[in-house]
Amino acid sequence: MIARLGIDVYITKAGTEHSLRALKGDVSTDSEDWLGTVIRSSK
Hints:
By secondary structure, this protein is an alpha+beta fold. It has one domain. The protein has one helix and two strands. It has one helix spanning 17-24; strands spanning 9-11, 37-39. The chain has a two-stranded antiparallel ribbon with strand order 1-2. The protein is elongated, with a radius of gyration of 11 Å. It starts with 8 loop residues before the first strand and ends with a strand. 0% of the residues are buried. The model has no long low-confidence stretch (mean pLDDT 73).
C-alpha cells in the first residue's frame, strides 16, 4: 500500500549498517553489498 503512494519501502535487518543506509536514503540496488529488499511503485 505504501509503495502505491509513491513512497519507497526498504526492508532490512534492524540494527545493521544496511538499515542505517536505508534510513538515510543511501540505497543503491546495484550495490554488491546491499542486504535487503526495496519495494517501489511500478508507475
